[in-house]
Amino acid sequence: MLxxxxxxIFLSLIIGVALGISAIKFKVDGDPIIEKIDSxxxxxxxxxxxxxxxxxxxxxxxxxxxxxxxxxPGGDDGIHKLADLLxxxxxxxxxxxxxxxxxxxxxxDEKTCIGCTLCIQACPVDAILGSxxxxxxxxxxxxxxxxxxxxxxxxxxxxxxxIKETTENWKWKYPVHKLRVxxxxxx
Length: 187
What we know:
The protein is mostly helical.
């Protein structure tokens, strides 16, 4: 009887240690659904959804605080992907947050720029290069087209230019087919 109790205690200790080590080794940082939602969002960090960036918006969607249709840069494609991921019904874009626009990049008219640095402070992805009282320029590969640099510019020297479609940035546009219901086939 004592040997049986000893064996059970010994096995319990081994299993407990194994579970403890597994809990440390396989620990998941954060909620994986937030990471999946964030990977679908366009990463413009524009704040049009009402949140300061894509990660806070993803967190709000995962917790049920925000709806899936608040991201204009993501457009209908992003809303469809979010609906599929979360298993909810598709909703059209809530136009209170904006309307979809073609992907654009900011361009600074360097002759007009006065070097005030207000656009640098407004850029959420550090895509503007320059210093005080010197002209600024945009790092085009870093610019997400969020338009947050436009309002603070006192001399309106920033323009948004749509990105031309090239072989490097072209994406397949899935065809949309209307389904026809054959009423003769229904019982």
